[in-house]
Amino acid sequence: GLWQSIPWDKVLSDEKKCDFKLEKELVQRFIKESKENGNASDICRALAMQASLFARMSNFDSALAAQKDLELVYVISKHSPMLVNQYGSDFAAISYGNSVQWYEMIGDKASALEQIEFVVTKIIPKFPPIAVHDIFSCLFPIIMVMKDHGFGREAKELLKKYVLERFTLLGLSSSTYWYPLYKPLKILLELVILDDSCIPRDETQDMALNEIEKWVLQAGRLSPISALERYGRVIRGEICWR
Description:
Radius of gyration: 19 Å
Mean pLDDT: 84
Structural class: mainly alpha
């Protein structure tokens, strides 16, 4: 609970946030205790926490080193149900998705694309249909990287297959955590595909772009949740830029 509260700015003051002292202590203690107890799901959660912490510190090489340690332990069919039962989400699987952006940050495009292939073929399909939160958590960083490497169309297809169809199938609505970002992300991918196609825009496309412009100007805050609001600003900023 304490760890989860820290990124939401509920515990640390601005003066104390910069050194990550409390977070380091929490992670080191959790890793030590989980290894002593030998519980694989706890070890997976602890390593995912460590990778996340290093990434927040912009130490992406160390984040990826922690991710590699996690990959030596984690087996989705075995550990994912245990992680969801104990912690509410499969944070190990989510770390796989986040690691795609970490590879991107250090300029390792080949490893980023390799990790995308693994997550999309070996992890995402094994989630139960109702696990939309974990699926979107894994997919979001992947989609943000894919669109920058000429895979906008494939990214949109992933969003449709694993998010939209499950929202529809399960009757999920605006109460779903990631739901406020679905439409903005879909619009962004449509613009990416249009830009990548290099086809001159016709009247129909101009009309669609005008509608997107109106939506962007009128949308207001995309989510009352601070983390999603940050993501929303990134998406909307790129929509405006394009």
